[in-house]
């Protein structure tokens, strides 16, 4: 479908020679959700993305923070803004601040100096499994300082990218529904990591809880599993159910490249999504691949 205009609503870029990303440089992440990620420890720049995406009509992209040095978070936005001026991408930026930082508003002001700034992703502290106790300390979803920082996003006209395991979606909904002024998008299909009938049933409940909030959207992205290959058949039911829960007008496709490359190539992933979504009408396809992201990120 070469005429389909596509917005990639979530990808990453990094230059390991010029900039510092602790998780890619000298502080290995022992609990990375896809396991061994040593293949990601290489530069990934606009020319690399464009090579991966060749053959598709990618008209705009959204860069989501890539865990840049947390001692200088605004610098990532400044660097990306320079890349965009040179290479024409990304076209919008989701930056990072620690929401419990006493200087959160000063950092938000720094990000907002870029005309590409649209939102913030700041991962709260979460539990490792569905059955583990929910954290309630610093940087948890219940932390008063974290909640004050979240509220500040509305004053700067910023959206929020929610990236938590599915078992925290309902908990997050309790905060999100108090702030209609902050558009929210759930990352990575709500992370349906447990594909057992019981795991999917729990994922379904949490997805429905947060989808009841009309200003919450969903990224149909990153269906990779730690111990299984990416395939159309293993992901078809999850994608179609997520789409049914949120509706095409609140769903947006995203590549999550290069992390997703650990399990699937760009072409195979995007063609796989097009296969899964082949039953949609053309207006519905346009919503998922272009219109929802364009509206949400003000492209």
Shape: globular
- Indicate the structural class: alpha/beta
Q: Which blocks of ≥5 consecutive residues have pLDDT under 50? A: none
CATH H-level homologous superfamily name: Metal-dependent hydrolases
Task: Give the helix tally.
Answer: 10
Tell me the number of structural domains: 1
Mean pLDDT: 96
Compute the separation of the termini in Å.
Answer: 22 Å
Strand order of the largest sheet: 1-2-3-4-5-6-7-8
| CATH level 1 name | Alpha Beta
Helical percentage: 25-40%
Beta content: 5-15%
CATH architecture field? Alpha-Beta Barrel
CA-atom Rg in angstroms? 18 Å
Description:
- It holds the Pfam family Amidohydro_2.
- Residues 7-299 form the Amidohydrolase-related domain.
- Keywords: Hydrolase.
- The chain has 299 residues and is an alpha/beta fold.
- It has a single domain, classed as Metal-dependent hydrolases (TIM Barrel, Alpha-Beta Barrel).
- It is built from ten helices and eight strands.
- The protein has an eight-stranded parallel sheet.
- Helix 3 packs parallel to helix 4 (104-111).
- The longest helix has 15 residues, at 197-211.
